[in-house]
Q: What sequence folds into this?
């Protein structure tokens, strides 16, 4: 019996070790509210044999007051060997995934943290993230990192909150044994060689989300071209693919170019013209890493009109606008990243497949919405609380419904205006309230009830249709306290009505069809 108990407890321990997950977001730590991160300089060496990293992170920050404690997140898997401020070692405590540093009488704005350790392994990337160490088809090392759900603390010390972005960007000095390359954010400034190692220096001066900071190691080759942006800028466009997949590189580059062009049409010019438009082949499906999107969809292109479409590539690229340029500071509003980007995917259908392909796609997606959880989560949500499938599909459906309410001309102008609004871009953050207020001001429409219904509740208006004598029908929407503009198809064609609780009389020789094109989410 004792033996069995011992065995069971070991099993439990193994299970616990495997199930270790990290979260981020929620209320801001009071110690971290006192400073802002301006820049991360990460110098890391990768050891594929032991799946470990070693190096340092130099954090430049700005504080309103003299700090007694400088608090970062860094998971306990890593060992911190020393911390320097103004060239002198300072005290620190590293426990419970927190790194508290104690500056001694200094007005410093920079700290260098030396650390090393075995990397946490992703359980189900990118949803349950971490490092993914794989072998490519030729048996060479291939490593990808995903951390949307975990934050940057799984690879570097960071002020790990969605509200914190390195305002002046990042510099990444990433060292790998030859012949491996490391693809990362921004521009590649230099590859320096030392003995049997290469160091890649990547740099970006754009603000960047913690989970957007990223690197992928592999035996890569590239295809490149210059992208002519609608802004007039010429932007480097690159795909980094495994050498085993060299023959696919050119086709992938063309798919990327078409996706970029289509996004620019609806969301405005590519937001990081000083850097690049790029994807890197990863050993997991994908993620929106700023200017180096993860691509792991195995070149499964599908024809759409005259062009080729890759849903994964298109989706992650859309995040350069919503997710990377326009970011939320509270995961409660995460639907703005996923819903707007998912809607961008539907627009690819509209643009290249035409109206039939678009409406068919919308119908298919809508059928899978369970209407179980509101799209917007409570304030100060963590990532794990706020992340659920409806932030994608219902989020996109809300934007589609908004289009139905506003009509195409006003809708497309408003959509581009949000995507290009300076108030939401780069250093600042967007919230659902700010989004709603912007749309209302821009369109001059009162849409509060509309957004309240679809973003904050799981209720759906119920269609009530009754026959009232010959060729007369009575139509109402139950379950809402306001009127929604809805198309109704009668024997004389499609007309828009404002429907609510008060019944509306409609004449038709055929049974009226409510919302025949499927603009709105309704209980029918
Ligand atoms: Zn996404």
A:
């Amino acid at each position: 019996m004792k033996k069995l108990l011992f065995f069971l407890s070991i099993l439990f321990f193994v299970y616990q070790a495997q199930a270790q997950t990290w979260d981020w977001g929620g209320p801001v730590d009071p110690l971290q509210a006192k400073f802002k991160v301006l820049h991360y300089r990460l110098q890391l060496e990768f050891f594929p044999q032991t799946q470990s990293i070693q190096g340092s992170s130099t954090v430049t920050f700005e504080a309103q007051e003299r700090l007694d404690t400088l608090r970062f997140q860094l998971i306990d898997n890593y060992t911190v060997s020393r911390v320097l401020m103004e060239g002198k070692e300072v005290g620190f405590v590293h426990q419970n995934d927190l790194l508290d540093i104690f500056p001694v009488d200094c007005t410093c704005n920079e700290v260098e943290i030396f650390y090393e350790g075995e990397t946490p392994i992703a359980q189900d990337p990118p949803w349950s993230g971490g490092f993914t160490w794989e072998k490519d088809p030729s048996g060479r090392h291939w490593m990808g990192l995903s951390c949307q759900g975990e934050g940057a603390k799984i690879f570097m010390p960071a002020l790990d909150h969605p509200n914190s972005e390195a305002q002046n960007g990042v510099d990444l000095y990433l060292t790998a044994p030859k012949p491996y390359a490391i693809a990362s954010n921004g521009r590649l400034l230099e590859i320096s060689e030392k003995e049997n190692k290469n160091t890649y220096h990547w740099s970006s001066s754009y603000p960047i989300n913690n989970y957007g900071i990223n690197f992928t190691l592999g035996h890569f080759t590239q295809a490149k071209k210059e992208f002519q942006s609608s802004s007039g800028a010429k932007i480097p466009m690159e795909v980094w693919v495994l050498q085993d997949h060299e023959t696919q590189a050119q086709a992938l580059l063309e798919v990327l170019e078409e996706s970029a062009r289509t996004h620019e049409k609806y969301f405005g010019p590519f937001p990081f013209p000083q850097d690049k438009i790029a994807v890197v082949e990863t050993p997991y499906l994908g993620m929106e890493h700023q200017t180096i999107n993860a691509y792991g969809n195995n070149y499964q292109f599908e024809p759409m009109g005259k062009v080729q479409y890759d849903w994964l590539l298109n989706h992650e690229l859309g995040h350069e606008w919503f997710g990377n340029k326009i970011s939320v500071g509270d995961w409660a509003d995460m639907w703005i990243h996923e819903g707007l980007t998912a809607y961008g995917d539907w627009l690819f259908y509209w643009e290249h497949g035409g109206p039939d392909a678009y409406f068919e796609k919308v119908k298919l997606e809508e059928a899978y919405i369970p209407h179980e959880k509101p799209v917007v989560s409570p304030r100060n949500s963590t990532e794990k609380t706020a992340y659920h499938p409806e932030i994608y599909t219902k989020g996109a459906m809300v934007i589609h419904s908004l289009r139905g309410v506003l009509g195409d001309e006003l809708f497309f102008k408003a959509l581009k205006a949000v995507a290009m609004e300076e108030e939401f871009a780069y250093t600042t953050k967007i919230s659902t309230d700010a989004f709603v207020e912007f749309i209302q001001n821009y369109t001059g429409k009162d849409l509060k009830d509309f957004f309240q219904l679809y973003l904050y509740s799981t209720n759906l208006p119920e269609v009530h249709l009754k026959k009232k004598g010959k060729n007369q029908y009575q139509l109402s929407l139950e379950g809402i306290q306001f009127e929604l503009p809805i198309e109704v198809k009668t024997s004389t064609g499609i007309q828009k009505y404002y429907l609510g609780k008060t019944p509306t009389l409609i004449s038709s020789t055929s049974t009226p069809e409510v919302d025949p094109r499927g603009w709105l989410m309704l209980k029918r």
The pocket of zinc ion is lined by residues 315, 319, 338, 341 (CB under 6 Å). The two ends are 60 Å apart (CA to CA).
